[in-house]
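In response to reviewer comment 3 from the previous cycle, which asked for concrete evidence that the modeling workflow produces usable outputs, we include below a single protein chain processed end to end. The sequence was submitted unchanged, and the resulting structure tokens are shown without manual editing.
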Amino acid sequence: MELTNENEEYTKMSPEQKKRHLYEHQKDILDKFLKRGAISKQQYDKSLRDLTEKMGFRI
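The workflow returned the following structure tokens.
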């Protein structure tokens, strides 16, 4: 099953890889919200900046 394969891959990730995976997933959601007009560009920019800072990454 595909879900099982994804779970197995996730359990093999390092903590840093898991953190990056979560960040990319959250960013993808923000991208979709912006594309569909659910949030403004200003909301997107602030949310992405906050997410990036909280996760310890740089844009």
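The chain has three helices and no strands. We consider this sufficient to address the reviewer's concern, and the full set will be provided in the supplementary archive.
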